[in-house]
Amino acid sequence: MREIAIVPRREFRVPVEAEKISPDVFAPLSIEEIERIEVWEGNRKVILSDLFDISGDDGPAKPEETLISLSGDFSKVKRVGENMTCGRIAADGDLGMHAGNGMVGGEIEIGGRAGDWLGREMRGGKIIVLGNAGDYVGAGYRGEACGMRGGEILIEGSAGDYLGEHLCGGKITVLGNSGDFPGIANRGGVIVIGGDAHLPGAEMASGSITVRGRARVLPSYQYQETVEIDGLSLKKFLGDMVDNGKGELYAASVENGGA
Amino acid sequence: MIIKGGFVYDPKNGVHGEEMDISIEGGKVVEESRDGDEIDARGMLVMPGGVDAHAHIAGAKVNSGRIMRPEDGRRGIEPRTKLLRPSTGYTVPNCYAIGYRYARLGYTCAFEAATPILESRHTHEELEEIPIVDKGALTLFGNNWEVLECVRDGDLDKLAAFVAWGLSASRGYGVKVVNPGGGEAWGFGGNVKGIDDPVPNFGVTPREIIRCLMRANEILGLPHSVHLHTNNLGKPGNYETTLETLKAVEDIAASCDRQVLHVTHMQFSAYGGTGWRDFESKAPEIADYYNRHGQFTMDMGQLIFGSATTMTADAPLEYGNARLLHAKWSNHDIELEESSGVVPLVYGRKMPINAIQWAIGLELALLTNDPWQLIMTTDHPNGGPFVNYPEVISLLMSRAKREEELATLHDLASKRSSLPSIEREMDWNDVAIVTRAAPARILGLAEKGHLGLGADGDVTIYDINPTDVDPSKDHRKVKAALAKARYTIKGGEVVSRDGEIVAVPQGRTYWVDASVPEDQAAKVRADLVEKFAKYYSIQMSNYMVQDAYVTHPRVVKAGVI
């Protein structure tokens, strides 16, 4: 495995657009070539070595055998791992918005907090977040009909609002709570929330959402039956009836009595 | 500037691929130029600059499309440069991208196909921001209360005076009629079902609206004819409405040397079947009618597979689209004038209806014998974005390409249309007509679409040698060459070279100033004072398009006196 380590030289005051930080881009390049990759810091074009110390194994390798490790504060560094197809990115701290955009394969592990739009429109691969994640995890960007279509996202902490908006496939697991409207406009993806959720599945057409904690359920959901899943008794609903949806919503306990 | 030695196609002046020089000076084609600039066009194809007579490129509904489709804005992004503003979008590009992309294709003139008078300030604000190309806008009249009242009262002179006023108020170029009567009925949730279905509250029929507007158009002697989007557009079986409409106006004569009626995006009006299940092409019937009636013209409205944004003043049609496709929908009421709608959609190769629609556009173009009756369009962005014109031209020029494409489509495209049996392949002369000479003639733009003395110095040079490339076999070469003109010259200035924009002049905006007798104008003014006082949400002083909105006007005079 070729390992490349990246450490910020300073604290960033404005966002850095770093879609080039990806195993697919790095793999064929030497460390020196990687240092000269152009990125935008705010409205200024700079090269990677202006912003980061880059070290590690020199010389080309296959992308699937490339590991990029990020240490330090990357919370203002955006689009890391965009469209990556294989290989691995490991951040020991926070990682900025749009990490794993449209990713097709490979793995991203984030030790701290993930910014908004994590794994937006991803098609495959795996993202693991040990901390919390922001809003719009696995969502489609503004106006898109489809967000995540495949792959897997695991968030060990909690997620923000609009988790998995326009999900068209794949699986998102959140061990903690989620914010407002998880699984909005779901079209076939799977969401599992370990804790509580507020108004899950608005406009859901198909797919499933499981809330293993407490959920405030929309009145446009129809109660079906109580089922036993993984030793937990869950109330099953179908909806969203507003859109003639066939989505399945499971909740361990329902706020306000639900629908 | 002298353009030396290219194979020139200038159908209006009977030039069919002869090697000759074209001289431009002062922005016009001249006998001889002395400025010393020279472009070597030997071995290349030389044509007048392209003219797009029907595209939705500016105004409120185009902008609604942009607002509804932020995802479209992520496509086609090109950052700004020292010379260029940034480009965004595919089906609804920003203003700058529209100008740059037309120039790259070799087009130097494009007309916005529909602007309500009420929204015309917006339309001109956007037209002003479209660089390079000359442009104009057709003004909507088919559902305007003043029009419906004049039709009801049978007062043609007053109608003509209102049309003249409307063109001036909107700085518009011609009379656009969209689903006449249907847009007004939509204000009450209804539509008209055919040309003899009366419009609620007015009692007039689409037949009467179309006839009266055509006659008013000819009273004024406008450079362009009435530009009609038919009733029942987009519905199975609508070819009967289309033919009925054409038959209903056969007796009307044009007042000048041009067509008497232009039916736009005919592809959407040439459908057979009683519903979507037995949906089929009736293009041969339409083309056959056109072959017997030279006074009518049409544009294709060719469908392009992939993303499109439908936008039209035919609001009930868009409501139907949105319900059918569960798509995003925008609906707009334009007070006393029109309604409109916008629905994004995706045309799929394996979707039976889309595949048949695709075939219908090509059938219409290939079965209409006289290319002067035809304009190549995609009804941008309804059938697809205009950047796909090279694709359409290569389809028209190559049966082999059509067969290759048909093989990738739903098989109903072959079964429900006559396309597989059509052998015709357009030649370069036909292409120069349907993309240049015919649209200029149909719009009535005397200085466009040809390279005769006094014509605008708009020239396109494509890097393809018509003597050694067989478009039928080498359709890929044709498409590639047309997508990036070697040179696009606008008013004697090179604006695009090999796809790179090298100059960004401001184009002119055509509008028609038609004069009418003062007594008729006074009658119209009296009506309008009442309408603005009673119904409009704005004052008339905030309504008219002032000169400040049109900084580079090209005013065409017409009218009764």
Describe the model.
The complex is a heterodimer of chains A (259) and B (561). In chain A, strands 1, 5, 6, 8, 9, 10, 11, 12, 13, 14, 15, 16, 17 and 18 form a 14-stranded mixed sheet that branches. Chain A has a domain at 113-257. Chain A has 3 helices and 18 strands. In chain A, strand 3 (38-41) and strand 4 form a beta hairpin. Chain A has 259 residues and is mostly beta strands. Helices cover 5% and strands 36% of the residues of chain A. The radius of gyration of chain B is 22 Å and the shape is globular. The mean pLDDT of chain B is 97. In chain B, strands 6, 7, 8, 9, 10, 11, 14, 18, 23 and 24 form a 10-stranded parallel sheet that branches. In chain B, strands 1, 2, 3, 4, 5, 19, 20, 21 and 22 form a 9-stranded mixed sheet that branches. In chain B, strands 15-17-16 form a 3-stranded antiparallel sheet, with helices on both faces. Chain B has one domain: Metal-dependent hydrolases (TIM Barrel, Alpha-Beta Barrel), CATH 3.20.20.140. The longest helix of chain B has 17 residues, at 518-534. By secondary structure, chain B is of the alpha/beta class. Helix content of chain B is 34%, strand content 22%. Chain B contains 18 helices and 24 strands. Chain A binds chain B through residues 140-145, and chain B through 68-74.
Averaging pLDDT over every residue of chain B, what do you get?
97
Number of strands of chain B: 24
* Secondary-structure element series of chain A: EEHHEEHEEEEEEEEEEEEEE
What is the CATH C level class of chain B, in words?
Alpha Beta
Percentage of residues in strands of chain B: 15-25%
List segments of chain A where confidence is low: pLDDT < 50 over at least 5 consecutive residues.
none
CA gyration radius of chain B, whole angstroms: 22 Å
The percent range for strand residues of chain A is 35-45%
